[in-house]
Design brief:
The protein contains five helices and ten strands, in the order ααααββββββββββα. The chain has helices at residues 10-24, 46-111, 115-121, 125-205, 345-350; strands spanning 233-234, 252-255, 261-263, 268-275, 281-286, 292-301, 308-309, 314-318, 329-334, 342-343.
């Protein structure tokens, strides 16, 4: 006879997944002043709000995805444990069959007659007593089997109830985390368009409103050069044609949401901050070696003309100002601060060990 085995890992596995989602339901934005020498108090207006929400959205998305992957992994493990519970159910069914077989055998051997009646009809009393001892042993086996079956059924029912409760809690936390992520993204979208509206008004006035002092992130760059944005989709490249440009496209476009932090690709000095014309709000930085980089169509700047910047420092936020059909960063590498001297930025960055994904 097979004996049922308890598998106590099912509920802890589900509770572990629930704990992961519980921790993930409280995203914390990046903080820290960095080492860039930001002057003045951090901005408390729409630019700062967008920057903070942008970080919160990134963290919430990261934690949501991590929680989702962990939940899926725990789900797989729980399904394997559920298969073990199914085997336990089959074992109990076999035990029930064994109990029935024992009971039927006992009845056929005379277990249904009182002992006095059996002694009267017995031809050999000694043989009868030996048979009765066998019956008592069978009774004991039946009672033990019944107790074992009931205990196994009770454990199985408890495990199933706990597993169901854990699954329900897991689903609730997963839903709450998804709602939290969506709420942050909705707030971010509203703030992004408010920031863009403010930027459009600045461009229309043709006068920059001054640097927005954003909280700089903690950085530990080991390279002297980085990409201008951390995450992006490549759009128009250098030299491509189109109705939006009088000649050929003079830079590399990075499609990014409004308010995305824009980074200085290398150390240098800000030689131009402009808020009008085809490029909208733009920043130009002079680097060692006679090269200049331009960051255009911004929604806000985080530096003023004449400031020194370091590699990876946030110098502004992306937008869709000037001659732009949608949110993106227009990035140029120039031989002079002025337009008309651009070189292809992709091989220029590649020569500095910065490759576009």
């Amino acid at each position: 006879m097979r004996s049922p085995r308890r598998h106590p890992l099912l509920v802890p596995a589900l509770l572990c997944a629930f704990a992961v989602l519980l921790l993930a339901a409280h995203p914390t934005g990046a903080s820290g002043d960095g080492d860039h020498g930001n002057h003045g108090a951090p901005d408390t207006g729409i630019s700062g709000q967008v920057a903070r929400l942008y970080e919160d959205a990134a963290v919430a998305t990261q934690q949501y995805e991590a929680g989702r992957r962990e939940a899926e992994a725990q789900r797989g493990r729980a399904e394997r444990y559920e298969a073990l519970l199914d085997r336990e159910r089959r074992d109990i069914a076999v035990l029930h069959e064994d109990l029935g077989r024992i009971a039927r055998a006992q009845y056929r051997s005379g277990g249904g007659l009182p002992l006095t009646a059996q002694m009267i009809v017995a031809e050999d009393p000694d043989e009868l007593m030996r048979g009765q001892r066998a019956v008592w042993q069978a009774d004991l086996a039946v009672n033990n089997a019944i107790g074992k079956s009931r205990r196994a059924e009770a454990r199985l029912a408890a495990d199933e109830a706990k597993a169901e409760a854990a699954w329900q809690a897991l689903e609730r936390r997963n839903t709450e985390l998804a709602d939290l992520k969506q709420g942050i993204e909705e707030q971010l979208e509203a703030a992004q368009w408010q920031l863009q509206g403010q930027a459009d008004a600045t461009v229309a006035a043709g006068s920059c409103r001054g640097a927005v002092r954003l909280d700089q992130p903690q950085t530990d760059f080991t390279s002297a050069w980085v990409l201008p944005v951390e995450t992006y989709t490549l759009s128009a490249g250098f030299g491509s044609g189109g109705a939006r440009w009088a000649n050929r496209h003079t830079g590399q476009d990075f499609a990014v949401p409004i308010g995305t932090p824009v980074r200085a690709v290398g150390a240098g000095r800000v030689v131009k901050v402009s808020c009008g014309g085809a490029f909208g709000i733009e920043v130009v930085i002079a680097h060692a070696g006679g090269y200049y980089t331009q960051y255009a169509h911004l929604a806000a700047t985080a530096v003023n003309q004449g400031e020194q910047v370091s590699t990876g420092q946030w110098i502004g936020q992306s937008g869709s100002t000037g001659n732009s059909t949608g949110p993106h960063l227009h990035f140029e590498v120039r031989l002079t601060p002025q337009m008309g001297s651009a070189v292809d930025p992709v091989p220029w960055l590649s020569a500095r060990e910065v490759n576009l994904g």
